[in-house]
Structures are given as structure tokens and as C-alpha cells.
Amino acid sequence: MMRFSPRLFALLVFPFICIAQEQQSQVDVKKLGEDSYRLTLKTFKTTNVDEGQSELLPTAESLCIGKSVRYEKYKFKSQERIPGAAPDKGDAPSLELEQEIHCDKATAGTKPPDLVSRQSDVSWQPTASDQQVVERLTSQYFSAKDQGKYQVGYAMLHKANQEITPFDRWSANAREFNEKAGKVLSRKVKKVTWYKDVPGAPLPGFYVAVDFDGAFANLDMYCGYVMWYRESEGLYRLVREEQNYLDKKMRKKIKDSDFYELKAKFKC
Predict the structure, then answer these.
(1) Residue 143: helix, strand or coil by DSSP?
(2) For residue range 120-168, what is the model confidence (pLDDT) as tens digits?
(3) How far apart are CA 267 and CA 139, in angstroms?
(4) Where are the domains of the chain?
(5) Neighbours of 65 (CB within 10 A)
(6) Which of 250, 254, 194 is nearest to 222 (CA)?
(7) Residue 13: helix, strand or coil by DSSP?
(8) Model's pTM, two decimal places?
(9) Where are the strands (E) in the chain, listed by range?
(10) Are the C-beta atoms of residues 218 and 184 closer than 8 Å to each other?
(11) Sheet containing 67-79: which strands, arranged edge to edge?
């Protein structure tokens, strides 16, 4: 099942303790310019970015009447319930999503942008050598973060990601994770999956997801994936990263069955 979000690129996703409660979704709209808007969704219906973007679609279409909606960059913050954990009042599973959109004018005789034939690297196909390259890049990226070489890791991000997340915020997040997780004990690649010309993706071409898991001194669960984009020059830039983890202190508070349920949910 493809886990690639068709819009733009995300930040880190961490599990939080929270309790379910029924609340209505809220959508705020801010006009950024001619045919450009920022939609802010606050919802308790889902913690999934793709589902949040789907929930925003009716609002986007109402703003772009007679035109096609193009999703652009976004950022989000989510809270996920840990099974069996003690309830923490006011912290329900939730998603806050800021999504920028642009209303594209329809042109007679042309297809929507997502259906237009893509011409980038039409003859290129990934090989075993390319897989080794992305595995090596993934190792180098995490090695830089593990060793506190944040400038090196940040330089591997796609320009669009750097525009969304300034270095100070990105490095602060990486530093906070290192402090919580403790010494890295292992990290291994589980699977490498290639995608080409994903409908709705901001850029045509090849994307490659690298699933991983590992172990840290202070964690009892750790896994996730990174997504790389292959640029026309054959270089790869990081466009998405998700890390899911549970520390040892929290692990002691939940039952074994709930722990394994959590691992299954995040595919750890």
C-alpha cells in the first residue's frame, strides 16, 4: 500500500498520549494572493495527513469554483493515542494541518495537470545500484543526525522542505529526539519501494521510500520511513521523514497486548 502523500512533504510524526473525544472539525481560510489560499484544518476525526487533505477538498473546491485545485506545500502536527495509556484530559487524537492551495485556470482542450503526460526520464528505470545509493544516503543522513552533525543532515533535504522547516526548528527537533532516545544501538533498512509520476505529486519523476527500524538505549520501539526524490541530474533529496517511537518509561505503563497493537499499527 502506497504511503506517499500526493501533495508535498511532511515533518516528523511522533506518538502522543491522548484520549478520544467527539469534536467538530474546524477549517480556517486565509487568502495569500491571487488564486492562492492557506487552509488550516483542526480535526479529531483522523491523525492521517492524506485523510486531512481529503477533508479539506470541499472547502478548496468552493474557493476555486470553475478552476482546478492544486495542493502545494503543507505542514502538520498530530497526536496519536497510545493503547492502554492513562488518559490525559484534553489530549484527544487530533490533526492540525496547514495546507496551501492554488486555483489553476482551466484551459480548453487540455487535461488537468495530474493527467498530463510526464516526460522526465521516461527511459530511466531504477537498478540494484540505485537501491544501494538510496540505502547509503539513508545511512549517511541518520548518521549525521545521530552524531549531531545537523548541518550535514539538513543539507540533504529537498529545497521545498527547507523552505517549510527552517534549520533552527529542524535541528531543534533532531536534537530533542537524540536526547530522548539516547545512544543509537542499531538501525536497518527493511524495504525499498520505488514510485513514478505519482498523481498529484508536486514534481514528476521517481520517488523512493526506505522503510527502517532500529534500537536506541532509551526506546522500546522505533521505526519509520524516509522518502527520497530523484532529481533530473540523478541526485536524490529527502522529501519526507517519519519516525515512530515509544520510550521505556511509557512502555512500563501499558500492557503487552497494547504494546504489540501499537507496533502493528506503526508497522514496527
Answers:
(1) helix
(2) 455 788 899 999 999 999 999 999 999 999 999 999 999 988 988 899 9
(3) 20
(4) 1-105, 128-265
(5) 7
(6) 250
(7) coil
(8) 0.63
(9) 26-33, 36-43, 67-79, 94-105, 184-196, 206-216, 219-230, 236-247
(10) no
(11) 26-33, 36-43, 94-105, 67-79
Q: Which of 98, 119, 101 is nearest to 52 (CA)?
A: 98
Q: How far apart are CA 95 and CA 196, in angstroms?
A: 28
What CATH class does 128-265 carry?
Answer: alpha beta
Three-point CA angle 211, 216, 220, nearest 5°: 85
Round to whole Å and give the CA distance between 250 and 253: 5
The owner of cell 519509520 is 224
Query: What's the pLDDT tens digit per position in 242-251?
Result: 999 999 999 9
Cell numbers for 204: 514528476
Grid coordinates in use for 121?
Answer: 526520464
CB 166 within 8 A of CB 80: no
Q: Is 37 in contact with 29 (CB distance < 8 Å)?
A: yes
3-state DSSP assignment of residue 123: coil
**Residues 80, 34: contact at Cβ < 8 Å?**
no
